[in-house]
Amino acid sequence: MPINSDQGIRELLESTRTIALVGASPNPQRASHAVMHYMLDRGYRVIPVNPNEQEILGQKVYPTLKDIPEPVDMVDVFRTAEAAGPICDEAIAIGAKSIWLQLGVINEAGAQRAEAAGLKVVMDRCPAIDMPRLGMGPPNPHKPKRAAA
Predict the structure, then answer these.
(1) Angle ∠(95,96,98) on CA atoms, nearest 5
(2) Distances, alpha carbon 47 to alpha carbons 33, 36, 82, 121, in Å
(3) Per-residue pLDDT of the chain (149 residues; tens, 9 = 90+)
(4) What's the predicted TM-score (pTM) here?
(5) Residues 14, 36: Cα–Cα separation, whole Å
(6) Do β-strands 59-60 and 18-22 pair in parallel, antiparallel, or remain unpaired?
(7) CA-to-CA distance for 113 and 59, rounded, in angstroms?
(8) Rounded CA gap, 77 and 50, in Å?
(9) How far apart are CA 110 and CA 132, in angstroms?
(10) What φ, ψ does residue 21 adopt, rounded to 5°?
(11) What are residue 101's DSSP bridge partners?
(12) Nearest-angstrom CA–CA distance, 17 and 39
């Protein structure tokens, strides 16, 4: 069962040091960019994953999870629910400790496979929202601005 308790979320975030952010974007108007910036500001090592980019926020980008040459604690997924299943399998394959599916990303089958392999799973949440809510940091100053209607 995915982690939903405040204590479980806090413990996961406190034990995580290296995050592979799948679906990272260089566009400051994208949520993945804002979350990456926020997590870097909080002292996490964030490794962007995107096959179409070379560098984001000063960090070397890797095309896939398997291309990352160092251990990863958490895989943070900014992709569709359909894409999240195979990403869960990739997270298992690289030996990640946890997988975090962002707001709106729910893939029960992928989550079950990850949990069965021993990974901690969070679904339909955002660490840049949960951290300030849990008193683990200030609100995200990098949050994309919405255009006026």
Answers:
(1) 140
(2) 12, 9, 22, 19
(3) 899 999 999 999 999 999 999 999 999 999 999 999 999 999 999 999 999 999 999 999 999 999 999 999 999 999 999 999 999 999 999 999 999 999 999 999 999 999 999 999 999 999 999 999 999 999 888 887 654 44
(4) 0.94
(5) 17
(6) unpaired
(7) 30
(8) 11
(9) 28
(10) -105, 105
(11) 77
(12) 10
The candidate with the shortest Cα–Cα distance to 84, out of 49, 123, 27, is 123
Three-state SS for 7? helix
Type of residue numbered 79: R
Note whether 71 and 19 are within 8 A (CB).
Answer: no
Residues in the chain: 149
Bridge-based pairing state of the strands 55-56 and 59-60: antiparallel
Phi and psi at 125, nearest 5°, equal -140, 170
Structure tokens at 51: 């096959």
